[in-house]
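Standup notes, structure subgroup. Blocker cleared on the protoporphyrin IX containing FE input:
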Amino acid sequence: MSASQNELVYNPYAFALHDDPYATYQRLRDEAPAYWNPDLEFWVLSRFDDVLQAFRDFETFSSAGGVALENRRPIGQVSPENQQMIELDPPDHTHFRKLVSRVFTGRRVAEMEDDIRSIVDRYIDNVIEVGTADLVTDITGPFPMDVISALLGVPAEDRDALRYEADRLLVREDGSMDLPAEAIEGFFGLLNYFIADLKTRTPGDGRGLISDLLALEVDGRALSEPELLGFCTLFVIAGHETTTKMVANTIELLSRHPDQRSQVVADPTVAPAVIEEVLRFHNSTQYMHRTLTRDIEMHGQQMHEGDSVVLLIGAANHDPDEFGATAGVFDIGRRPERHLGFGYGAHFCLGAALARMEGRIAIEQIHRRLGDYQVDHDAKVRFHSGNVTGWESLPITFTPGQKLSDTTNQRGSTPS
Ligand code: HEM
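Run returned:
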């Protein structure tokens, strides 16, 4: 908190908040369930029921004014070159999502399992003989971009450059809502890449989801070029950043909970439960932004049409009214019936099954192959952004092991 002890201040860009936002979140839930930030001018909802209802009520809480606070704008003011479904309300959103869901199917995701395992193993192979690594730089940072690129049909040689741009896009300055020049350059780097990429494709040429979408029409309507570009940028950003951060968050958390880490080493098949608890307890997406389409009153506060509202997933997922007295405890045995880590309602994360699979496989393989890892907590470096939480660097040491690529010639290849 940047202000005096007693004053409740929530600024999602304050670096000081990022180390432990949960005490502030508790105060928001308890003292100001409809909190107004007068400097940055936004409301915050932090109780589980309120956040869930707001996600559900798209007629009141619109996505069309932007879903990141720093990208907010008047409802309906759309970018001419790049339209993302995440920033549309039904019925426009429904149509877009229906089209994308035709090509991005559960079967397609399930078919990625072996490829994802090979990709993760290849990165582990690169470090396993050494006994030290930077978990983020060497393993958890690069692998989700390989996975989403393989799905989209982005050539292997372009993936590092795309990852560089996607990482720059999220950079924010301490306490400030303004987009730094680096973030804007990152966005245009991605956009320009796909403007050029689309020109090289023909509908249905078999080069992944992008080409499949080019060939598709639903109810007599295909995606326009700005919508296709919106699809590409959204999938790269959403598919890479949140998953990367989720896996490193998991390792960092388990390293501080040795008993639970031992359970995962003893039985790596508990990985799905671990991932679910990390999505609840310390989600890589901390909030989503909405814009009010009408005046409403909540918790005695008068909120006005056009106001910004932050739906604070991180706080809702620690609400004792939903998760009981131990809501603030990390417990891989919890198996929550529901949480808001992937949002709720119309925009529920389209990549949830893929993210869960990537997380499961990475946690399984890291615990099978680097199971006695030690995190250097003095040297780790936090990644600072607005709504994304994670690590920029997580140095680890472990007992050296053997490469899998020595024993199978299939591993080590990059799926195309
Ligand atoms: C740990 C990983 C992930 C987390 C925590 C996460 C979180 C979220 C959340 C909270 C939303 C709801 C946004 C809103 O209501 O405004 C969302 C939407 C979305 N996510 Fe994810 N996501 C993850 C991984 C992925 C992956 C791997 C993909 C790519 C395939 C993806 C693609 C999307 C898309 C396309 C949407 C928009 C859906 C729509 O507008 O209908 N996400 N995600």
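Discussed briefly. The chain has one domain: 15-397.
Next: hand off to the docking folks.
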